[in-house]
Amino acid sequence: MAANKQAPDEYDILRERILRGELHPRQRLVETELAENLSSNRARIRRALARLEHDGLVAIEPYRGAYVRMVSEAEAVEIFETRGVLEPYLVRRTAARATSADKTRLQALVKEMQDAFDQGNPMVVGRSSRKIREEMWRIAGQQTITNLLAMLNTKLIRFWYRSVMVSDRATSIRSELTAAVDAICAGSAEEASAAMKRYHDDAMAALRQAMQLRAGGGDGDVA
Q1: Looking at the whole model, is its pTM more than 0.70?
Q2: How many structural domains are present in the chain?
């Protein structure tokens, strides 16, 4: 008999609300209000907030309490730069370790991304690209880097929404990740790494363009 799926706890619910933008940057998170809203208690809410602080999504200050943390544009640039160093290294391991089943899975995910691109949906292209990259991380089998990348991506969620909608970003996502998967399937670590470097160079350019649009009053901020 299949095991019952565990219901989301306070941490999962609050994390999802922050990532979806239902809880806004700098919004105060009052334990009593959250406990009532989630039919929980302050102790469980406090534990959830502590985990979210560790994730970089919440800040907790003496006398002020907890609030949704705002990632600055300067910090976002630093995070993009860090990912751009880590992932090209990681996919070298992916190319060396990928089994036939792994390659089939990656190719199926690329097809999903291509279908989204053909339908003209850049947001779904972006989500598909995250699935491809996370599969690459899994195959690489380097848990420390994987955990770090997952944490960095969580902190970047609002900037990700902005940058993925920049003109032509979906085209470059499709092109570079397809090239990376093709290289992995061919066992070429060097080409896979080069494709991921191009991917991150383009991601940085899209981030900067999105920030310029936002500063100029354009529609770059779609979070």
Answers
A1: yes
A2: 2
